[in-house]
Automatic annotation (TrEMBL):
<comment type="subunit">
    <text>Homodimer.</text>
</comment>
<comment type="function">
    <text>Participates actively in the response to hyperosmotic and heat shock by preventing the aggregation of stress-denatured proteins, in association with DnaK and GrpE. It is the nucleotide exchange factor for DnaK and may function as a thermosensor. Unfolded proteins bind initially to DnaJ; upon interaction with the DnaJ-bound protein, DnaK hydrolyzes its bound ATP, resulting in the formation of a stable complex. GrpE releases ADP from DnaK; ATP binding to DnaK triggers the release of the substrate protein, thus completing the reaction cycle.</text>
</comment>
<keyword id="KW-0143">Chaperone</keyword>
<keyword id="KW-0963">Cytoplasm</keyword>
<dbReference type="GO" id="GO:0051087">
    <property type="term" value="F:protein-folding chaperone binding"/>
</dbReference>
<feature type="coiled-coil region">
    <location>
        <begin position="62"/>
        <end position="96"/>
    </location>
</feature>
<feature type="compositionally biased region" description="Low complexity">
    <location>
        <begin position="31"/>
        <end position="40"/>
    </location>
</feature>
<comment type="similarity">
    <text>Belongs to the GrpE family.</text>
</comment>
<dbReference type="Pfam" id="PF01025">
    <property type="entry name" value="GrpE"/>
</dbReference>
<feature type="region of interest" description="Disordered">
    <location>
        <begin position="1"/>
        <end position="54"/>
    </location>
</feature>
<dbReference type="GO" id="GO:0051082">
    <property type="term" value="F:unfolded protein binding"/>
</dbReference>
<dbReference type="InterPro" id="IPR000740">
    <property type="entry name" value="GrpE"/>
</dbReference>
<dbReference type="InterPro" id="IPR013805">
    <property type="entry name" value="GrpE_CC"/>
</dbReference>
<dbReference type="GO" id="GO:0000774">
    <property type="term" value="F:adenyl-nucleotide exchange factor activity"/>
</dbReference>
<keyword id="KW-0175">Coiled coil</keyword>
<keyword id="KW-0346">Stress response</keyword>
<dbReference type="GO" id="GO:0005737">
    <property type="term" value="C:cytoplasm"/>
</dbReference>
């Protein structure tokens, strides 16, 4: 037997017909049907708002550690940049000092090279003196020392020093007609200008000037 205090178990059947089959009258809509839907919507809104309300609080100690780490990183980057600039300056200064020292030694050897060149021109570069002279020339060439100055090249006051001056009819511009002492340079830097005799185009005579004016 079924306990009268308990409701029967089983499926619930709801009559959703709009027209009553007995009275043939239009039934009013049931307000209870909208209630579960409204409750479901309210539940979804509450669930969506729950994560925002339950956001974890920021740990002050962790924030302080992150700020300290950022500051130390910036200090390390600045220190590294300063070290790179310092190393670049040191390398540049070291190269300038080395080049200055090499130039100073080469400048002191120019007189020896002049003697070697003069002995070769006079056929006196022989024996042990020849070996020593050629050895000095090889060492200086290895450090970038080169000679310049030849007869027939245009006169350039930047690299030539005129010791003699004359006029000539076979030149069209100031020209080095004789090299009295060769010049030397290291790279583009001139250690000693070439000492030369310079000839310029011959000045017109008085007769030529008169004929040109007439």
């Amino acid at each position: 037997m079924t306990d009268p205090g308990t409701e029967p178990q089983g499926p619930t059947i709801r009559d959703r017909r709009r027209i009553d089959p007995e009275t043939l009258q239009v039934r009013e809509p049931q307000p209870e049907a909208a209630a579960p839907a409204a409750e479901a919507v309210e539940g979804e809104v509450a669930d969506a708002a729950a994560p925002a309300a339950e956001a974890p609080a920021v740990d002050p100690q962790l924030a302080a550690l992150e700020q300290s780490l950022s500051e130390r990183t910036l200090d390390l980057q600045r220190l590294q940049a300063e070290y790179v600039n310092y190393k670049r300056r040191v390398d540049r200064d070291r190269e300038v000092s080395r080049a200055a020292g090499v130039e100073s030694v080469l400048r002191d050897l120019l007189a020896v090279l002049d003697d070697v060149r003069s002995a070769r021109e006079h056929g006196e570069l022989t024996g042990a003196f020849k070996a020593v002279g050629e050895g000095v020339e090889k060492v200086t060439a290895r450090h970038g020392l080169t000679s310049f100055g030849e007869a027939g090249e245009p006169f350039d006051p930047q690299v030539h020093e005129a010791l003699m001056h004359a006029y000539a009819e076979d030149v069209t511009e100031p020209t080095c007609v004789q090299v009295l002492q060769v010049g030397y340079r290291v790279g583009e830097r001139v250690l000693r200008p070439a000492r030369v005799a310079v000839a310029e185009p011959a000045a017109p005579s008085d007769d030529q000037s008169s004929s040109e004016q007439s």
